[in-house]
Write a structure and sequence with these properties.
Structural class: mainly alpha
Order of helices and strands: HHHH
Largest sheet: none
Distance between the termini: 64 Å
Strand content: under 5%
Number of strands: 0
Radius of gyration: 19 Å
Length: 120
């Protein structure tokens, strides 16, 4: 079953790299929509990886390893959900404080200064 899916994985990796590489050399600001095609391919690749993992775990006879594998998948899904909620203010433009914005910056070279306007 895994051998049949290997070409799909290769196609997804080539698609991800092909969508991401053109934007890596850009020195100006790239907006979210520049990365959307690569994100869609990455989501499909992740779904394929989880499918393969669950199929391999389904063949195991050792119940403790099987439970550990399912726990890993659940924890990974929870981590992805947390990251989505944590970074969603940047994507959807909901209001956050300057401190919350600074906490979300992982790479300082990508830091965008936040201008606070006081209209009072």
């Amino acid at each position: 079953m895994i051998v049949k899916r290997a070409p799909i994985g290769v196609i997804l990796v080539i698609g991800y790299i092909g969508n991401l590489v053109p934007y890596m050399g850009i020195k100006r600001v790239c907006f979210n929509y520049h990365y959307m095609p690569a994100l869609l391919v990455a989501i499909h690749s992740f779904a394929l990886l989880i499918d393969i993992l669950l199929k391999v775990l389904g063949r195991l006879r050792n119940k403790s390893v099987l439970r550990l594998g399912y726990l890993f998948v659940v924890l990974l899904a929870m981590a992805i959900g947390w990251c989505f909620l944590y970074f969603s203010p940047w994507t959807y433009g909901t209001s956050i404080t300057v401190e919350e914005h600074a906490a979300r910056v992982w790479v300082q070279s990508c830091y965008i200064k936040v201008q606070v306007n006081n209209y009072e």
